[in-house]
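For reference, the entry.
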Amino acid sequence: MDKRQEMLKLVEEFEVSRMTQRDFSASKGMGFHKFNCWYRMLNIEQTGGDQLQGFFRVDVGTV
């Protein structure tokens, strides 16, 4: 299994674990920042990379 497949498997495990990223990465013996980086990268690949996760444009107009 290559590194990408390994990380994809871990991300899938995380999503059903109901743990925080910090707790999950610690339980797997890996650093939080490394796991978070992989999680974001794989999430961007799955969404097509054209969406900002958690943000949307709000047009407030003029007052």
User: Anything to note?
Assistant: The chain has a mean pLDDT of 85. Residues 3-47 form one domain.
